[in-house]
UniProtKB/TrEMBL annotation:
InterPro entries: DNA/RNA_pol_sf, Endo/exonu/phosph_ase_sf, RT_dom. CDD domains: RT_nLTR_like. The lineage of its organism: Eukaryota, Metazoa, Cnidaria, Anthozoa, Octocorallia. SUPFAM superfamilies: DNA/RNA polymerases, DNase I-like. This is Uncharacterized protein.
Length: 820
């Protein structure tokens, strides 16, 4: 809707008690993105106190203060809210960037090629830093002539669609309004109203024509098209911040904080566990699924020279719209100059890999502070966004491709780690978690789920420990030496607007924003899953969780087992200088309503001197999980978020044609709505109906179908399956991946073909073995749903040899069946 909404009054729903009325009110207002401000009782009697007078607002950021005024005038206390409806004008903001106003890619390439003799001299050098110095000198000096670095004032949004005629109309409108205010004459008001309406219509039509023209012009360029879209959709813009101190002083303070945050976290983590001998070690070979045997020397990994064609493919695959590093060289410019620089750049990268030396110039990072929450002048309230040069990322990509392939081929990474692996995703790990819990529920077990929060995990990686772990997974001495050069000697500076701090060394952590960092962190924590004794630990990069299922009869043992495993995890993290934040660690008990009601009232556990109480729901890898695994809260949040996006799109839909609107809705709403859908598609029919209403609204926005008109023609026009069928299609696609080894082994191994059990050739020879689940909980698992769905599919779809063909053919058939 995009407007400020305030709902207030006595609604006769006590917000202090979980009554059906209050629950329904909270649910409805949540879906409409309304926030309740009043927290204390508004009516107090001798025997009761209730909160029935409420204030809901759609924009809490505008609230200065709110509360209750206790007075004897009435038995209901007055409630109030103060809003900040006028914002102060922000001072001008300046940035340092390259000016491409006079940049011509062809002229730049020709000018660069005139230095070919000097570029060829790079091949005759032996030192990689000398090679890169010559390369940068030639490349940057040439680029400075065509796209110089300038300090530019950031201006507000331009309105290129406003023509001189429209400006004249606006001036006339304002003059007529001024005249009416003086005369208060009825005819002057009619003249003003006519001019106002004419100007408004002209503005709307001009904007629509301009945007449609831009969309048509950039239809084949996704990056440029999204730039047009973002300029015309009401995103919440990041407000420019004003500092009370000089920008240079702020930049220096922030840089000192960011450059030492890793070492400080590591020091705190190393003292977290005072006595590592509380729980004796034991043989963990049955728990750890990682092959930690040290390879023979001839089986160790070494880098191999890379060809020019490989470097070309890596560069062309990189996005062109990412922010450049300290040198302000964009990927777009590198692609323009590729014919000239490809040979020298390939030689520099090969020299780096063969000499085990990462160039010093590629170790400099520029950090931009982004406000998370709270006071922007506090460095701890900001998130550091590290910008590295694109040339360094090309070299990293080469190392990642080669070393990553070796690790996957030799199964050196723990199967308990789902981050940054082929065929793995948040969805596959959430499927594993959900099926583990549902299988336990089918066996009348309750599952304890603990989501562990690591603070500054990437920043506190100890380089010495990491290099040892790299050797343990098979890196040769020369490769370990290259990684040592890559990690050490790094510097960073913080940029506030156009002001840059003095560079400071960074002695801990893996580089933020670097291509190799996720893989290095996975190697660093590769042995973490083996630390637990009773539970199972699963991770997605730095997000880890443990699961432990138990019977209600054995609940007395749960506390001891969980605390022992948590201690062992904390001990392992402490030894590796990784800091756990027990205050943000979430603890849930998930099971059937009957089993959960039988648990004792006090189910708290102790973790690092803090008491952790079970919560009713928590967010895990983008999904909200509740105690009964119904996903009700997840759907409520999803509907609220999607409706908010659709309202914003609806306000500006007149500026886009149908094709562009479809693209916008699919990217901003549908992708969000169906995120991890195979996990929660077993939710109630009531929740599916809510999502169907969201899809219907999206369809009406694109096709202009009336509010009371039937939606099926619109869905057919867009080739959209209804939500229920779309969920089935996505489940079928995931099943195709599992059956054809395009999914993680922990999912693929769930499914067994009947032909592997029975040798007789029957009609069900290629069907999957149906798992024996006794309750509806087990039958809600993806294991059971997937097998049932796959066995019901026509054999012609199962035989298709590509995922893309399978998806297209099955969707086409489903559309024909629904809209025939």
């Amino acid at each position: 809707m995009g407007k400020l909404i305030i709902l207030l009054g006595n609604l006769n729903c006590d917000m202090l008690k979980p009554t059906p009325g209050s629950a329904s009110l909270i649910k409805t207002t949540k879906e409409l993105n309304l926030n309740q401000l009043i927290k204390s009782p508004t009516r107090i009697t001798e025997s009761s106190q209730t909160l029935v007078d409420v204030i809901f607002v759609s924009s809490p950021r505008l609230v200065v203060n709110s509360g209750v005024i206790e007075t004897c005038i009435s038995d209901h206390f007055p409630v109030y809210v103060s809003l900040k409806l006028k914002t102060d004008k922000s001072p001008p903001n300046y940035i340092t960037t390259r000016s491409y106003n006079k940049y011509d890619p062809d002229l730049f390439a020709i000018d660069l090629a005139s230095n070919r003799d000097r570029l060829v001299s790079i091949f005759r050098m032996d030192n990689v830093d000398e090679k890169l110095t010559i390369f940068n000198e030639i490349f940057l000096n040439t680029l400075d002539k065509h796209a110089p670095v300038k300090i530019i004032k950031v201006r507000g949004k331009s309105c290129p669609f406003i023509t001189p005629e429209i400006k004249a109309s606006m001036i006339k409108r304002d003059q007529l309004h001024s005249l009416f205010r003086k005369t208060r004459d009825h005819y002057d008001w009619l003249n003003f109203r006519e001019a106002r309406n004419f100007t408004k219509t002209a503005l709307v039509n001009a904007q629509k024509e301009y945007v449609l023209k831009e969309v048509q012009q950039h239809r084949n360029n996704t990056g440029s098209l999204w730039k047009v879209i973002k300029e015309n959709i009401a995103y919440r813009e990041r407000e420019s911040v004003v500092y009370s101190k000089e920008p240079k002083l702020v930049a220096e303070e922030f840089n000192h904080f960011f450059s030492t945050i890793g070492v400080n976290a590591a020091k705190k983590a190393s003292t977290l566990i005072q006595d590592p001998s509380v729980y004796p070690a034991r043989n963990l070979s049955d728990v750890n699924r990682t092959d930690n045997s040290y390879p023979e020397e001839n089986d160790r990994f070494s880098f191999t020279p890379v060809s020019c064609s490989e470097i070309r493919n890596i560069i062309l695959a990189m996005p062109s719209n990412k922010s450049p590093g300290k040198d302000k060289v964009s990927m777009r410019v590198i692609k323009h100059s590729l014919p000239v620089i490809l040979g020298p750049l390939t030689d520099i990268i090969n020299c780096s890999l063969s000499s085990s030396s990462f160039p010093i110039a590629w170790k400099e990072a520029e950090v931009i502070p982004l406000l998370k929450d709270g006071n922007h002048e506090e460095a701890s309230n900001n998130r550091p966004l590290s910008l590295l040069t694109f040339l360094s990322k090309i070299c990293e990509k080469v190392a990642l491709n080669q070393f990553g392939s070796y690790l996957m081929k030799n199964k050196k990474l723990s199967t308990h780690q789902s981050g940054n692996k082929k065929h793995h995703s948040c969805e596959t790990l959430n499927l594993l978690t959900g099926d583990t819990i549902l299988k336990a529920m089918d066996g009348k077990l309750v599952t304890a789920l603990i989501l562990i929060d690591l603070s500054k995990a990437f920043d506190s990686v100890n380089h010495t420990f990491l290099l040892t772990k790299l050797s343990n997974v098979g890196a040769s001495p020369s490769v370990v030496k290259w990684f040592e050069s890559y990690l050490t000697g790094r510097t960073q500076s913080v940029r506030i607007g156009s002001t840059v701090s003095t560079p400071l060394p960074v002695s801990y952590g893996v580089p933020q924003g670097a291509i190799l960092s996720p893989l290095l962190f996975s190697i660093y924590t590769n042995d973490l899953p083996s630390s637990v004794h009773h539970s199972k630990l699963e991770s997605y990069v730095d997000d880890s969780k443990i699961l432990l299922s138990f019977t209600v009869a054995n609940v007395d043992c749960l506390k001891q087992q969980l605390e022992e495993d948590l201690y062992l995890i904390a001990n392992s993290c402490s030894e590796n200088e990784l800091l756990i934040n027990p205050g943000k660690t979430k603890y849930m008990l998930i099971g059937t309503r009957q089993n959960l009601q039988q648990l004792p009232v006090d189910m708290t556990i102790n973790f690092l001197n803090e008491t952790i109480t079970p919560v009713s729901f928590a967010k895990d890898l983008g999904m909200t999980i509740d105690s009964y695994l119904t996903y009700d809260q997840h759907i409520t949040n999803l509907v609220s978020s999607c409706m908010n996006s659709l309202c914003q799109i609806n306000r500006v839909k007149k500026c886009f044609d149908k094709e562009a609107l479809t693209l916008i809705v699919s990217a901003l709403v549908m992708n969000k709505m169906f995120y991890c859908s195979t996990v929660w598609s077993n939710t109630s029919s009531t929740n599916i109906k809510k999502l169907q209403l969201v899809q219907n609204f999206a369809c009406r926005i694109i096709t202009n179908i009336g509010k009371f008109d039937h939606i099926s023609p619109g869905l057919r026009e867009l080739n959209w399956l209804p939500v229920k069928e779309q969920l089935l299609l996505r489940e079928a696609i995931m099943m195709y991946k599992c059956v054809n080894e395009l999914a993680p082994h922990y999912l693929s191994d769930l499914f067994t073909k009947r032909s592997e059990i029975h040798q007789r050739d029957t009609r069900s020879h290629d069907s999957l073995q149906i798992p024996l689940y006794k309750t509806s909980a087990g039958q809600r698992s993806f294991h059971y749903r997937g097998v049932t769905l796959w066995n019901d599919l026509d054999i012609k779809y199962k035989k298709l040899d590509s995922l893309k063909t399978f998806k297209n053919e099955l969707k086409r058939n489903m559309l024909e069946q629904i809209y025939k």
